[in-house]
Automatic annotation (TrEMBL):
GO terms for molecular function: nickel cation binding; zinc ion binding. Zn(2+) binds at C73, C76, C89, C92. Pfam families: HypA. Keywords: Metal-binding, Nickel, Zinc. One of its GO terms (biological process) is protein maturation. The keyword Cell cycle does not apply. PROSITE patterns: HYPA (PS01249). Belongs to the HypA/HybF family. Involved in the maturation of [NiFe] hydrogenases. Required for nickel insertion into the metal center of the hydrogenase. InterPro entries: Hydgase_Ni_incorp_HypA/HybF_CS, HypA/HybF. Ni(2+) binds at H2. This is Hydrogenase maturation factor HypA.
Amino acid sequence: MHEASLAGGILKLVEDAARREAFRRVTVLRLEVGQLAGVELRALKFALEAIAPGTHLEGARLEFEEPAGQAWCMTCSQTVVLAARGMACTECGSYQLQPTGGTELRVIDMLVADE
Ligand SMILES: [Zn+2]
C-alpha cells in the first residue's frame, strides 16, 4: 500500500534525526498532508501506528495539518479551491487546472525527549 511506504519514509526520517541528534523518543510528530497530496490520512495514521512499536516513534502523538488544495485555472485565470485532484474549476468548470497548494506531504516538526 502507498501509505505504508510513505510511513516507512517518515519513520526513516525520524530515525535518522534520532541518530544525528541523539534523542530517545519522539513525543509529538506533526505532519502536513495537503488535500491534494494523494494520501489517505487515516491509512497513513494507521500505517505509522503499526510500525511505531520498538522505534523512536513508539508512543508519539501524531498531529496532522491538512491544508486545502489550491489550483490555478488556466481557463479563467484565477486561483480556486480544489477539494480533490481531478475535480473541475469551481468558477468555470474547466479541467485545465494546475495544483499550486495543498500538494505536500512533509514533517512540520517533532517534539523529542531525551529519556
Ligand atoms: Zn476556471
